[in-house]
Amino acid sequence: MARFTGFDEVYSALYVDFDNIFTRFLEIDPEAARAFGAAPYRWVRWIENHALRILYGEGVRRRILKRMCYLNPQRYQEFRNSFIRSAFQVVDCPPLTSRGKTSTDIHLVMDCMDDLSHSTKFDEFIILSGDADFTPLLIRLQEHARRTLVLSVGYSSPAYTAAASWRIREDWFLQQALRDDRDDLDGDTGDVSGKSVPHATLVQAAARAPESHNGCADRGDAFSADDADSGEEPSPGNAW
Fold it and tell me: Which helix (H) or strand (E) holds 180?
């Protein structure tokens, strides 16, 4: 499938299901989870710069104009200010039931639907969640000719990943987006060559992460950094 063309800038809106992502990363590597919660500016910059040449061609800039984070303040209050300092609007989603169910899902869906008619026409809706309940939302966004990117952590249902335009690979997010402060952040220009040196624990975490998604082999359906230099094009539902 050919790249999307005709863009100088890609306007994006970002929605973070914090509890879902943080819980998954905590299972893989507590240090990676803490980096996700304590330094969101780092991985936001990675998303802004990553894989633009692959998806849109040369000379295109991604601008994340809206940043939303949905979290349970009773459990994750310590990370709230980190997101506020990184220009996120934080929506507190405390438990509503005795079993700990929060209102994150409905808040995220309502905000996305409202943003379909936003005066700024968002080209991309970026959803960081592995919750398959968002599948109908992805389908609706596609019907409105909006591209959808998801960070799908853990096991992802085939329907969820098929409904997304692109899928960010969990292992690449761990290796590149959550790299240690000792890396040269000033040199982070969004290169997708995979030549950056991630923190040792994050490398180990990525090694423990599944190498396949939805039963598909890693090189079969997932788009990795190595493919960026090969000239291969991803297709909808694939990962980068």
Answer: none
